[in-house]
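Entry:
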Amino acid sequence: LGGFALALSYGAYVAEVYRAGINSIHPGQRDAALAIGLTERAALRYVIVPQAVRRVGPPLLNDFIALQKDVALISILGVAGEAFRTAQIQTAADFNYTPLVAAALLYLCITIPMARLLDRWESGRSGRTR
Protein backbone atom coordinates (compact mmCIF):
# COMPACT_ATOMS: atom_id res chain seq x y z
CA LEU A 1 0.00 0.00 0.00
CA GLY A 2 2.86 2.35 0.73
CA GLY A 3 4.37 1.79 -2.71
CA PHE A 4 0.98 2.35 -4.32
CA ALA A 5 0.51 5.58 -2.37
CA LEU A 6 3.97 6.80 -3.35
CA ALA A 7 3.37 5.91 -7.00
CA LEU A 8 0.13 7.88 -7.07
CA SER A 9 1.52 10.82 -5.14
CA TYR A 10 4.78 11.18 -7.03
CA GLY A 11 3.04 10.45 -10.32
CA ALA A 12 0.94 13.54 -9.66
CA TYR A 13 4.02 15.57 -8.70
CA VAL A 14 5.89 14.53 -11.84
CA ALA A 15 2.87 15.29 -14.02
CA GLU A 16 2.67 18.76 -12.49
CA VAL A 17 6.39 19.32 -13.06
CA TYR A 18 6.03 18.43 -16.74
CA ARG A 19 2.88 20.56 -17.07
CA ALA A 20 4.71 23.53 -15.59
CA GLY A 21 7.69 22.85 -17.87
CA ILE A 22 5.47 22.88 -20.96
CA ASN A 23 3.69 26.03 -19.78
CA SER A 24 7.05 27.73 -19.17
CA ILE A 25 7.90 27.68 -22.87
CA HIS A 26 7.24 31.08 -24.40
CA PRO A 27 4.12 31.15 -26.62
CA GLY A 28 6.25 32.65 -29.37
CA GLN A 29 7.95 29.27 -29.77
CA ARG A 30 4.62 27.68 -30.67
CA ASP A 31 3.73 30.57 -32.94
CA ALA A 32 7.08 30.33 -34.72
CA ALA A 33 6.68 26.58 -35.20
CA LEU A 34 3.21 27.07 -36.67
CA ALA A 35 4.52 29.90 -38.88
CA ILE A 36 7.09 27.63 -40.52
CA GLY A 37 4.39 25.12 -41.38
CA LEU A 38 4.41 22.62 -38.53
CA THR A 39 1.08 21.25 -37.37
CA GLU A 40 0.00 21.77 -33.78
CA ARG A 41 1.03 18.21 -32.92
CA ALA A 42 4.42 18.54 -34.67
CA ALA A 43 5.06 21.88 -32.94
CA LEU A 44 4.41 20.24 -29.60
CA ARG A 45 6.56 17.21 -30.43
CA TYR A 46 9.56 18.89 -32.05
CA VAL A 47 9.67 22.35 -30.49
CA ILE A 48 7.82 22.66 -27.18
CA VAL A 49 8.34 19.30 -25.46
CA PRO A 50 12.13 19.09 -26.09
CA GLN A 51 12.59 22.52 -24.51
CA ALA A 52 10.32 21.63 -21.61
CA VAL A 53 12.18 18.38 -20.92
CA ARG A 54 15.42 20.33 -20.56
CA ARG A 55 13.82 22.65 -18.02
CA VAL A 56 12.33 20.00 -15.73
CA GLY A 57 15.61 18.28 -14.76
CA PRO A 58 16.20 20.07 -11.43
CA PRO A 59 12.62 19.71 -10.15
CA LEU A 60 12.61 16.02 -11.10
CA LEU A 61 15.87 15.44 -9.21
CA ASN A 62 14.30 17.17 -6.22
CA ASP A 63 11.29 14.83 -6.46
CA PHE A 64 13.61 11.81 -6.74
CA ILE A 65 15.45 12.79 -3.56
CA ALA A 66 12.14 13.38 -1.76
CA LEU A 67 10.96 9.96 -2.97
CA GLN A 68 14.04 8.34 -1.41
CA LYS A 69 13.24 10.02 1.90
CA ASP A 70 9.61 8.95 1.72
CA VAL A 71 10.58 5.34 1.00
CA ALA A 72 12.68 5.40 4.17
CA LEU A 73 9.76 6.90 6.08
CA ILE A 74 7.35 4.24 4.85
CA SER A 75 9.82 1.53 5.79
CA ILE A 76 9.93 2.87 9.33
CA LEU A 77 6.14 2.78 9.41
CA GLY A 78 5.85 -0.82 8.30
CA VAL A 79 7.55 -2.05 5.14
CA ALA A 80 10.47 -4.29 6.12
CA GLY A 81 13.71 -4.76 4.23
CA GLU A 82 14.54 -1.20 3.20
CA ALA A 83 18.12 -0.06 3.81
CA PHE A 84 17.44 2.45 6.57
CA ARG A 85 15.10 0.14 8.45
CA THR A 86 17.53 -2.74 8.21
CA ALA A 87 20.30 -0.48 9.55
CA GLN A 88 18.10 0.56 12.47
CA ILE A 89 17.38 -3.06 13.37
CA GLN A 90 21.06 -3.97 13.24
CA THR A 91 22.00 -0.92 15.32
CA ALA A 92 19.41 -1.78 17.95
CA ALA A 93 20.71 -5.33 18.13
CA ASP A 94 24.34 -4.53 18.95
CA PHE A 95 24.49 -0.75 19.60
CA ASN A 96 26.91 -0.32 16.71
CA TYR A 97 25.99 2.67 14.56
CA THR A 98 28.05 1.61 11.56
CA PRO A 99 24.96 0.26 9.67
CA LEU A 100 23.26 3.65 9.94
CA VAL A 101 26.36 5.35 8.58
CA ALA A 102 26.46 2.77 5.78
CA ALA A 103 22.79 3.42 4.94
CA ALA A 104 23.44 7.17 4.86
CA LEU A 105 26.43 6.59 2.57
CA LEU A 106 24.24 4.42 0.36
CA TYR A 107 21.76 7.28 -0.05
CA LEU A 108 24.62 9.68 -0.74
CA CYS A 109 26.08 7.29 -3.33
CA ILE A 110 22.78 7.47 -5.18
CA THR A 111 21.94 11.15 -4.71
CA ILE A 112 25.30 12.87 -5.29
CA PRO A 113 26.09 11.24 -8.67
CA MET A 114 22.58 12.07 -9.88
CA ALA A 115 23.06 15.70 -8.82
CA ARG A 116 26.45 15.81 -10.60
CA LEU A 117 24.91 14.27 -13.71
CA LEU A 118 22.22 16.92 -13.67
CA ASP A 119 24.83 19.67 -13.19
CA ARG A 120 26.74 18.32 -16.16
CA TRP A 121 23.58 18.17 -18.23
CA GLU A 122 22.72 21.75 -17.27
CA SER A 123 26.21 23.06 -18.02
CA GLY A 124 26.24 21.25 -21.37
CA ARG A 125 23.10 22.95 -22.50
CA SER A 126 23.99 26.38 -21.10
CA GLY A 127 26.38 26.94 -24.00
CA ARG A 128 23.59 26.47 -26.53
CA THR A 129 21.54 29.32 -27.81
CA ARG A 130 18.00 29.52 -26.56
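Helices lie at 2-23, 27-35, 40-55, 57-77, 83-94, 98-126.
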